[in-house]
Amino acid sequence: MSCNEHAGFATRQIHAGHQDLSAVGPLATPIFQTSTFVFQDTAQGAARFAGEEQGYIYTRLGNPNGNEVGAKVANLEGAEMGLVMGSGMGAVSACMWSLLKAGDHLLADKTLYGCTFAYFMHGLTRFGVEVTLIDFADLDAIKASLRDNTAVVYFESETNPDLKIVDIPAIVKIVKDHNPATKIVVDNTFATPVLLRPIELGVDIVLHSATKYLNGHGDVIAGMLCGSAEDMTNVLMVGVKDMTGSVIGPFEAFLINRGLKTLDIRVNKHCQSAMKIATFLEGHPAVKRTLYPGLASHPQHALAEKLFHGGFGGMIAFELDCSKDRAAEFINHLELCSLAVSLGDAETLIEHPASMTHSTYTPEELAEAGIGEGMIRLSVGLEDPEDIIADLKAQLDKIKK
Ligand SMILES: *Cc1c(COP(=O)(O)O)cnc(C)c1O
After folding, report:
1. Does residue 244 contact residue 55 with C-beta atoms inside 8 Å?
2. Is 113 touching ligand 1 by the criterion CB < 6 Å?
3. What is the pTM of this model?
4. Which of 125, 225, 278, 352 has its CA 20 to 30 A from that of 93?
């Protein structure tokens, strides 16, 4: 039932982290729907609290279902330890509350998931953390913005929503040359460990909204962090246990573990379909601009080819050559693509970042982050790509004949 560390990605996404329940014999790990765990005696309870004996205490500190997901995703990301949390934002906040204190400086990319942006700019700054946002495509700007008190450098490996790819090895070198103690945290939600593994490139901590591709079925909210055992234990004992209480339920963890077993199959299909759809969009006269890292026209296409393994993801951003109102009408008339935020699901989802996922930005901040009023974000699902293209084409053709 278990696998060795040399096993392939697909083998590990099914078997890594599996626990020994040989006395019981279930194929799938059952749901441990329990808040707490019974100690044999007071000595055992004390030993577990002191960390002298391995074992479960209370589900906020660990549960067999959550621990299996943590160990599995850590294995896939090439990390020592992983933690699964109640949401992606729970992972962002538990991580930052553990790494930062008043007086520290956080340097982050200017294009961020909307709630990450709000937490950094309107949350952390209230507690005495200095935050600077810059364009991480500009390596000289990163070098110039690092300070003596820069405790954390944060970016998305593929930015939301404009799909910028950043040069992770170059950034790691600049940051670690400046100060080896500065932690580099990367949100790898869009790329997934199938396509990109930042820890192998020298990053300290990888973060996921497991709500998206890791679960993949649109029925759970969850987050993940992977990193060294030292960093993850710090996040668990400070950020999760005390400062956020961002805990995942055993049933949600069970569902993510189920979703993970098909991660590479799903991601490869998302990639193949997205390439076809991006190529179609780029060739349609009603589309002004198509952003997809797999297209030769993408500003960081060469970098994406260097960093990504076997595909360029399932996310596409595009702009229509028409008014805002006409673009809204286009979205409203689609039949197969669902108008919804979130991403990475079996169903194709379409949304308007400026008024939805990124509405936490002011109009000036949107312009600064490169998120146009006309930008549309598409999360390519697992349907037949021909059907997704037909749905888009029927409405695009009405804009320009
Ligand atoms: C959705 C998302 C988050 C937040 O995750 P939740 O699970 O919704 O809390 C963070 N980063 C990225 C890139 C996301 O897409």
Report:
1. no
2. yes
3. 0.94
4. 352
